[in-house]
Amino acid sequence: MSILCGLPILECVYCLGCARWLWQKCLYTAGHESENWGLATAEEFEPVPRLCRLILSVYEDDLRYPLWAPPGGYGINPDWVIVKRTYEETGGCATPYMIYLDHDNVEIVLAIRGLNLAKESDYAVLLDNKLGQTKFDGGYVHNGLLKAAKWIFDAECELLRDLVEMNPDYRLTFAGHSLGAGIVSLITMYAVQNREKLGTIERKRIRCFAMAPARCVSLNLAVRYADVINSVVLQDTCTLEEKMLKDPRRLYAPGRLYHIVERKPFRIGRFPPVVRTAVPVDRRFEHIVLSCNATSDHTIIWLERESQRAVDLMLEKDRIMEIPAQQRMQRQESLAREHSEEYEAALRRAIALDIPQASYSPSYGTFAEVEEGESSGSSSGAGSLLSFKRIRERWDNFIERLFDVDESGRMVFKKSST
């Protein structure tokens, strides 16, 4: 009889456990993960919907007679398309892509489309990876995506170098969606490591926008390349597991994150989108929370629509506030400083969490540590490696900025850095 009386209690515990799992996996709101992040501005987020349309145009067979154009068209000039590669031309080594010389926005763009559900070669690229299989610049990257990135870079580096030299004031921008987002992220990292192959381009002229990217880099690389890589995520969220942060082989979304939030819990429909941004360390969308909108949130069409709505709302807010042009320029300069400070804070946070190879650098966009022989994709030339003396000097500078020595001779954090 006592055993039978205990059965209802066990059933209740089981039901509560199932309810908790359902809440975490299906009903958990994405906004919680980025609620403490700062709000993005129109100036920094403006390229996103424009580049989404450029990625969408890669799907077209003939850009002069488009079949799938979004409302308002792609906003591109077919005469400015330099090359447009198909599956036949890539041989299945990468998804189709396009190089576009955008004179209106002063940039050279390499745009790559996302996963084709009907192409086995795309699955082969995506599934070509094992945990900890490939090392790059002191961290780990997705093996199949790195192969695709190297293939595209090697195939187009001469053309890109010519375009960079002919247009010395233009940015070099890489953009992609889903599988293509992972590829362009690694192309960007590979290009930064091999800038000599692109002529005289500086690191600050290279940038990447990865739309709904595949997890492709380890946490230390995700933070260290946040000055050149921007990941855009619509609504999807994550559940934090501390043990995954301790595994240096785990792969994450790369770079600075832009989180578009446009739904609320227990509310029907989409709301005016809010874009939050940060260089997070603890929460980088490690797990996708299941929902009825998970698939649509990942598509490039919805990313383009919601990002354009977000930009329009930002511009409307600026118009209502009647911000003068001089103040806009000052805001851009202030934004650059804030991004730099946030980036350095993320590196310090990674060090505090004992993330392997999470090096700190006092200057935004330069990094101190590359160990000889550990990078499968970095340049083999001596010029690409910092000398041991410079590494030591930067490490000493890092120690002096963060620590003091107390009366007992022990190192303690400075009060200004805590």
UniProtKB/TrEMBL annotation:
Task: Indicate the secretion signal residues.
Answer: 1-19
Q: What Pfam families does UniProt report for this protein, alphabetically?
A: Lipase3_N, Lipase_3
| CDD domains xref list | Lipase_3 (cd00519)
Can you say what this protein is called? Answer: Calmodulin-binding heat-shock protein
What processes in GO biological process is this protein linked to? lipid catabolic process
A Gene Ontology molecular function term of the record: hydrolase activity
Q: Kindly indicate whether the keyword Hydrolase belongs to this entry.
A: yes
Q: Which keywords fit this entry according to its UniProt record?
A: Hydrolase, Signal
**Residue ranges of every copy of the Mono-/di-acylglycerol lipase N-terminal domain listed in the record:** 10-75
Residues in Fungal lipase-type domain copies: 109-233
Q: Is Hydrolase one of the keywords?
A: yes
Q: InterPro entries from the xrefs?
A: AB_hydrolase_fold (IPR029058), Fungal_lipase-type (IPR002921), Mono/diacylglycerol_lipase_N (IPR005592)
